[in-house]
Specification:
Distance between the termini of chain B: 28 Å
Oligomer: heterotrimer
Radius of gyration of chain B: 16 Å
Structural class of chain B: alpha+beta
Number of strands of chain B: 3
Number of domains of chain A: 4
CATH architecture of chain B: Orthogonal Bundle
Number of helices of chain A: 26
Number of strands of chain A: 21
Order of helices and strands of chain B: HHEHHEEH
Distance between the termini of chain A: 41 Å
Strand order of the largest sheet of chain B: 1-3-2
CATH class of chain B: Mainly Alpha
């Protein structure tokens, strides 16, 4: 490949050319001088005879330059000609590549946007999320008390600033119907920590952040466009939150989505308000910006010191408290990390399968082109140029495939956008130059994979000349490579199939599990409320009691209840409990999942009452109900009823009044744990209302809205949907993932089957003569058929075994997602193996049958 | 050497030589060339007719429209006097050059 | 001295170059000199076509070039025949014989 040398030695070539021509001219001049001419005359004549020396040099340079361009152009033209000759073949390859490359690019763009790129805040690596937790009682992380957050901010040395936020839903009442808005209540320094400035207007002033100062809100870009139609004069306009009128002082940019993407407005919390001084309150999720260069470990150590000092200063409340810090990005993306990488692995596997298929198809064309190749050799072409030609053909196919693949990738990105509920940061997934670059790399990789092996084999001089002169010969050497490719495809397909099979079995098992409650015919809804109301517990209790009572009277409603979490989709909230009295040995620590319910919860959810009574309707925080696991674990030899529990982190001693059956409150795939139900309505100003209805839950939607408007005209109703729909939504990501994997697996096995069919067909065609001879010598058709079948089935078997082994090794990755199914579940593995072998047999049967039906007379006559 | 180059280069010589045997039209000329060289020399219409036109322009060949046996009008070429002189000169050239080349390429024995 | 004009049959330059080089490593000037010498001045290579041809043959891998000392002590670029070039020369020679033979046949046939 001389053109390579040309690139690297351009200046050297130039120098050499000059000196070569100079040598010639000097020699001719010398010749003339020797013949008697004076030197200048000799020189002049020489130059005249030679003609334009520069032109000659240009032609020489051209000769070298032309080589590269000429070769590439010729290769490209030949590649296009080759493609047009067999359009079906080429289109099939291009489409296959488009699918493989496009899907790969789409998933890569998701991984890039979600996992790899930093969050869209300046120096996002410095941002961390803060919580407090109780070391002694090993409670889960809780929001931070306002006064403590201010102390952390003041006394630390590792942070630029610490702020905090919490969210609640409110009604905006300046319109005809109250509109629910999502509000974020923020501490001072909030925008400073995140490093974002309003796109219109300004941040809050210190006066607005003080207790008793003027009120102000910042609104989101979305709310601004929706309500005010992007009016540039929105600053100073007022909105009506609950019963107070507040002016808008700024609009935040559309890209700002903290603490989450649905927030409509930001309200400053006065940290000097009397009520904010209570150290036991848990209000704020902290957000802090570490100083540049500070690591997470250093920040943790620093806050530990600060909190330890606070613990000494305020032993009663702070002694056992500690700070919990996590990087902001981690909290957002950690949950999807595994799914995304598994998805990426699957699409890459698929691309590999497609490439091996294409390589096999290209290989099967070699015999047809042997003549062409041998001619090129006889014309003096080097092996390198022939390899170059084949690679160019593969490159042209790959480039065409990746151009179409970009369209597939665009569709894929749109699919991701529609999954906004299941994945974080999906709005950041875009088609940009990084994606195009990645697609190009995929194309090059595909070229190498698809084209290299056929190119190397086809360009073997010995093979091409043999084939060209004999036309049809035994091609067993190449066939073994093709069979290897088929075997690899089968192995990869089996791996994907086993993965999909395990996930499907998991779903099947989940479907058989009894949730312990009945989610059907239950309607859920929420009514707006804000945290300010929790100051007056009595008033809040009254409101809840009235609301539940009123809802229960709507015709069609059988029973009504309140719950802080959604049954079947809750997140576990383990807390530590002590049992008062000597009933349970003091050294036994009780850990239970905490739930807060009110009203006819157990009746509504059809959770059976096993002993005692359900919640009393008229008391708050004084009674509790436990489930069977709790009773059996902690009160094995006696009744739990009547005992008082001491909740370590809360100042209450509820009495156990009943025992109910186990329910999978945290999801079907989480078996029931000891659970303890507070009887209270006041955990959340906007809890979930659960209504058991007759018939279709949504039929009562309007009636319920009217009733709620009657008793609470200033509040809005939202998130009204059947419980079953809510539960299936929470499963959506799981289902999508399983579906996708199944789709891949099916595509993979189809590709493998086609590869098997193609290779065997080609083999049968090439060995026509041999088959004819055999039959003429007495072999039975069934024997011929059996021979070919065995060959195909044998390869499939080997591939299958290899695939099962790889699957067993990789199933580790799925371990966390499988429910009640072992990752080495024999049923799945056997089913996949059987299915694949049957399919392989079918794919092999057709060409084998064709072989058996050959007419020996016909074949031999053509010799 | 590409096989066609040599034939291209000596095409005018070959045409003059064949026309010196008898006048004929283009197609017959290419057939005669093929036959006389035992199929070694083959010239397509893409090269033949441009060459014939050039010879016509130089005045070494003239053309005439005749009606052939099959009642079709065909262009017949024949050699002019000047053409005959050219033929002799180019034949001498050919002998000289090809002889010299052969001497180099096929060294004389002994 | 008269201006050099091309005195060569079209398409034979490559073959002649290869043949001369086959006799032993030689530089460009040496090739044109040798051709004139052996053919007793009958064949004359136009220098403007010689060097592009040499570079073309080198690009195609039929000639290999090295720098060495010429007879007068100066540095010059010497060409030698590669294995591929040897094969190519054989092909060209057989082609030449076939074609030249056919042309001669036509020139000599009476009818």
């Amino acid at each position: 490949m001389r053109w390579l040398k040309f690139f690297f030695r351009k200046s050297a070539i130039e120098k050499e050319l000059n000196s070569e021509i100079r040598f010639h001219l000097d020699s001719v001049t010398q010749e003339k001088i020797d013949a008697g001419l004076p030197p200048e005359e000799a020189r002049r004549l020489t130059m005249l005879e030679f003609g334009g020396a520069e032109q000659v040099k240009e032609e020489c340079r051209y000769a070298h330059r032309l080589a590269f361009v000429e070769t590439t152009l010729a290769n490209l033209k030949a590649a296009v000609r080759f493609m047009r000759k067999s359009p079906g073949f080429s289109i099939a390859i291009i489409l296959t590549l488009a699918l493989g490359i496009g899907a790969n690019s789409a998933v890569f763009s998701a991984i890039d946007a979600i996992l790899l790129r930093p969050l869209p805040y300046p120096n996002a690596g410095e941002l961390v999320v803060l919580h407090q937790y109780n070391r002694a009682s090993k409670d889960s992380s809780r929001p931070i008390a306002p006064v403590r957050l201010e102390e952390w901010n003041k006394y630390n040395s590792a942070f630029q600033a610490i702020a905090g936020s919490y969210t609640q839903d409110l009604s905006e009442t300046s319109g005809t119907v109250p509109e629910r808005l999502a509000e974020a209540d923020v501490t001072p320094r909030f925008l400073q920590v995140l490093g974002v400035a309003p796109e219109l207007g300004r941040d809050f002033t210190p006066a607005e952040e003080r207790f008793g100062g003027p009120s102000a809100v910042l609104i989101s870009d979305r709310f601004w466009r929706r309500r005010f139609h992007a009016d540039a004069n929105v600053l100073g306009k007022r909105i009506r939150i609950e019963s107070s009128s507040v002016p808008i002082v700024g609009v935040l940019p559309a890209s700002f989505q903290f603490p989450d993407k649905d927030i409509d407005l930001w309200w400053p919390v006065p940290m000097d308000a009397p009520i904010a001084q209570n150290r036991a309150y848990t209000w704020f999720t902290g957000i802090g910006r570490m100083k540049p260069g500070i690591t997470l470990a250093q920040a943790r150590a620093d806050l530990d010191t600060v909190q330890a000092r606070l613990g000494r200063q305020f032993p009663q409340t702070d002694k056992d408290l500690a700070a919990r810090i996590q990087s902001l990005k981690e909290t957002i993306v950690a949950g999807s990390r595994r799914s995304l990488w598994i998805l990426f692995g699957s699409v890459t596997l698929l691309l590999l399968i497609a490439c091996t298929n294409i390589a096999a198809l290209l290989l099967s064309r070699i015999t047809e082109r042997a003549h062409e190749i041998s001619i090129r050799y006889s014309l003096g072409a080097g092996r390198g140029s022939i390899i170059g030609q084949f690679l160019t053909e593969a490159l042209v196919l790959a480039l065409a495939g990746s151009v179409v693949g970009l369209a597939v990738a665009a569709a894929g990105v749109r699919v991701f956008h529609s999954l906004a509920k299941a994945l974080p940061r999906v709005e950041e997934i875009t088609l940009d130059w990084r994606l195009a670059l990645y697609t190009l790399c995929c194309a090059i990789l595909a070229t190498a994979l698809c084209g290299l092996v056929p190119a190397l084999i086809a360009s073997r001089r010995s093979i091409s000349s043999t084939l060209a002169s004999h036309g049809r010969t035994q091609v067993s050497a190449r066939a073994s490579l093709q069979w290897t490719l088929v075997g690899v495809q089968v192995a990869l397909a089996v791996t994907l199939l086993v993965g999909a099979g395990l996930l499907l079995r998991s779903f099947q098992e989940l479907g058989r599990v009894s949730p312990g409650f009945d989610p059907n015919h239950v309607l859920t809804l929420r009514i707006s409320g804000n945290y300010g109301e929790t100051n007056d517990q009595k008033k809040m209790f009254q409101r809840m009691k009235n609301t539940v009572g009123a809802l229960a009277t709507v015709p069609g409603v059988e029973s009504a209840a309140i719950s802080a979490t959604v049954p079947g989709a809750g997140s576990g909230f383990p807390i530590e409990i002590k049992a008062a009295g000597s009933a349970v040995s003091p050294s036994r620590k009780i850990t239970a999942d905490e739930k807060v319910v009110y009203g006819a919860y157990f009746e509504t959810m059809r959770i059976p009452l096993l002993a005692g009574n359900t919640c009393k309707k008229d008391t708050l925080w004084t009674t509790a109900v436990v489930n069977r696991s709790f009773a059996e674990t902690y009160f094995p030899n006696q009744t739990a009823i009547g005992h008082h529990l001491q909740i370590t982190s809360f100042d209450a001693k509820p009495e156990i009044v009943g025992v109910v059956g186990d329910a999978r409150e945290n999801g079907l795939n989480h078996p029931a744990v000891p659970t303890f139900y507070w009887c209270s309505s006041n955990a959340d100003p906007s809890p979930y209302f659960l209504l058991r209805v007759r018939g279709d839950p949504m039929k009562l939607a309007n009636a319920l809205r009217r009733e709620i408007h009657r008793i609470e005209p200033s509040r809005s109703v939202f998130e009204m949907m059947p419980l079953s729909e809510r539960l299936s939504e929470s499963n959506a990501e799981n289902r999508f993932r399983t579906l996708l994997l199944a789709l891949f697996a099916l595509t993979a096995i189809s590709l493998a089957a086609i590869g098997l069919y193609g290779t065997l067909s080609y083999l049968v065609a090439r060995r026509n003569r041999e088959i004819g001879l055999r039959m003429a010598l007495g072999a039975l058709p069934s024997q011929i058929r059996a021979r070919f079948l065995a060959q195909g089935a044998g390869v499939a078997l080997l591939g299958c075994v290899a695939g099962l082994v790889i699957a067993a090794a990789l199933s580790r990755l799925l371990a966390g997602m499988l429910y009640e199914v072992s990752r080495l579940d024999p049923l799945t593995y056997i089913a996949v193996a059987t299915g694949v072998l049957v399919l392989a047999a079918a794919a092999a049967a057709l060409p084998a049958g064709r072989a058996a039906h050959l007419d020996p007379m016909q074949i031999l006559r053509h010799e | 050497m590409k096989p066609n180059d040599l034939v291209q280069g000596t095409l005018s010589l070959l045409i003059l030589r064949i026309l010196s045997l008898e006048p004929m039209h283009g197609w017959a000329l290419s057939q005669r060339l093929k036959q006389m060289s035992k199929d070694v020399l083959q010239v397509g219409p893409g090269s033949l007719y441009p060459a014939l036109h050039k010879l016509e322009q130089e005045g070494w060949v003239t053309a005439e429209w005749l009606t052939s046996e099959t009642k079709r009008r065909v262009k017949f070429y024949s050699l002019t006097k000047e053409g005959r002189r050219q033929l002799n000169a180019q034949t001498a050239d050919w002998k000289r050059l090809s002889g010299a080349i052969s001497a180099i390429v096929i060294p004389a024995r002994g | 001295m008269p201006l050099e004009k091309s005195e060569l049959l079209q398409g034979t330059l490559d073959m002649l170059i290869l043949k001369i080089v086959a006799l032993g490593p030689v530089h460009g000037y040496g090739i044109s000199h040798r051709i004139r010498q052996i053919s007793k001045d009958v064949l004359q290579v136009q220098q403007g076509s010689l060097y592009p041809a040499l570079h073309r043959l080198e690009r195609r891998g039929w000639l290999e070039a090295t720098w060495g000392q010429s007879e007068n002590g100066r540095e010059a670029k010497f060409y030698k025949l590669s294995a591929k070039g040897r094969r190519q020369l054989a092909t060209e020679e057989s082609n030449w014989q076939r074609l030249a033979g056919a042309i001669t046949l036509i020139m000599q046939t009476a009818e």
